[in-house]
Amino acid sequence: MRTQVAIIGAGPAGMLLAHLLRRADVDAVVLETRSQEYVASRIRAGILEQSSVDLLTSAGLGDRLRAEGFPHRGIYLQWPGERHHLDFVDLIGRSVWVYGQTEVQKDLVNANTASVVYEVSDVQVRNVDSSAPYVTYLDAEGRPGRIDASAIAGCDGSFGPSRAVVPASVATTWERTYPYSWLGILADVAPSTDELIYAWHPHGFALHSMRSPSVSRLYLQVPNGTSAGDWSDQRIWDELATRLGHGQDGWKLTPGPVTDKSVLPMRSFVQTPMRYGRLFLAGDAAHIVPPTGAKGLNLAIADVALLAPALTALLRNNDPALADRYGDDASRRVWRCTHFSWWMTTMLHIGDDPFDAQLQLSQLRWVTGSEAGAAGLAENYAGLPIGF
Ligand code: RFL
Ligand code: PHB
């Protein structure tokens, strides 16, 4: 098989890239190890930045998002005794949307613009340092396949093989593993809040998010090594009620049936360069952020917003300028989001040192009490414009 761009991975980065390329008359084929059903039902991120919504809308993917997604003006930040609302619209004139990654993924599949081969195995990326790269794989029946392409996009997430194709002598990686994880639940119950609540609590961080008027998504900071089975539903709801309660005006958390329960490790990781020869990395394949800043999905979208025009110019007009700049341009936003995600994480999670806890509370008071502090958080959370 021959195509212009071979894309590894049918997550949001790979599927959106295929969609944008097709709209620009560039052919692409996507290879994915999992089944279409598995990819569509993975529960992951839930918040879209303004620029992600704008990009999806301009790509013709905004109808259901605008009909069924929920614009949020801001978030709540709290600690025992105090809850504060940060209104991003007032602060910086931008907002965020609640719209699950599962829904973005469905919209991308329903657009039917991408040619995807699901359930492949043994994917190998070859010859990216030449002008004739190719990918080999085994299809669902174990038959060998090969795709020759002019460029390869590694959109295969945090565990995929693409990033390792960049030789160790060329790649630089940075990594931080945090000493805690998140226990996340999805529950069939109306959210007990109109906007997300990020809670600092001596027992550990808690987050109240949501997916719809009848589905809530909540998280608890737990020690690394925790297994979801260690926590009964009752224990989870009791702990969420403790950490999310702020002791004022009779606010209550309403529990409900838990439909999904999982533990999420917290990690920061960046690899550069994001381009090596004819290989371009995008999304979690090149960087991982802890979820506290709600940036993972948005960064994947922002990478692709730069990569699609770069590949289009390279392959349609033989103009390498944007492709040559892709790695540097994308990495600037990656580091901004890496810093913001680290900053939100370290401000809100409880460690061993009581000195750190006092610094966190002082920072939370500044971020909620000073317009300059609040605007800094708002600008990063609602997302800087693509190209910043
Ligand atoms: P994805 O979504 O991981 O998609 C990569 C795709 O590549 C496939 N793949 C391969 N395909 C072909 N050949 C191979 N050898 C392959 N190896 C892997 C995978 O099956 C997959 O379909 O990466 P992408 O597109 O870059 O999108 C990034 C986002 O998915 C990610 O940043 C966020 O969802 C992060 N994230 C979360 N963010 C939140 O804000 N809230 C969350 O609750 C949240 N939960 C999560 C998450 C990321 C997770 N991962 C990646 C471990 C939960 C998990 C488990
Ligand atoms: C989510 O809804 O899954 C979510 C929201 C905000 C975050 C992390 C996860 O910071």
Mean pLDDT: 96
Report the total helices.
Answer: 11
Q: What is the CATH level 1 assignment?
A: Alpha Beta
Enumerate the strands of the largest sheet in spatial order, edge to edge or round the barrel. 6-5-14-15-16-13-17-20
Percent of residues in helices comes to: 25-40%
The helix-and-strand class reads alpha+beta
Q: How far apart lie the N and C ends?
A: 38 Å
- CATH architecture descriptor: 3-Layer(bba) Sandwich
The main pleated sheet reads as: 8 strands, mixed
- Poorly predicted regions are none
What CATH calls the topology is: FAD/NAD(P)-binding domain
CATH homology superfamily name: FAD/NAD(P)-binding domain
Topology:
Elements: E1 5-8, H1 12-23, E2 28-31, H2 36-41, E3 47-49, H3 50-58, H4 63-68, E4 70-72, E5 74-79, E6 82-87, H5 88-92, E7 96-98, H6 101-111, E8 115-117, E9 121-126, E10 134-138, E11 144-148, E12 151-154, E13 172-187, E14 197-199, E15 206-212, E16 215-223, H7 233-244, E17 258-272, E18 275-276, E19 279-281, E20 287-288, H8 296-317, H9 321-348, H10 354-369, H11 371-382
Parallel strand pairs: 1-2, 1-12, 2-8, 5-14, 12-19
Antiparallel strand pairs: 3-7, 4-7, 5-6, 9-10, 10-11, 13-16, 13-17, 14-15, 15-16, 17-20, 18-19
Bound molecules: 8-demethyl-8-dimethylamino-flavin-adenine-dinucleotide and P-hydroxybenzoic acid.
P-hydroxybenzoic acid binds next to loops.
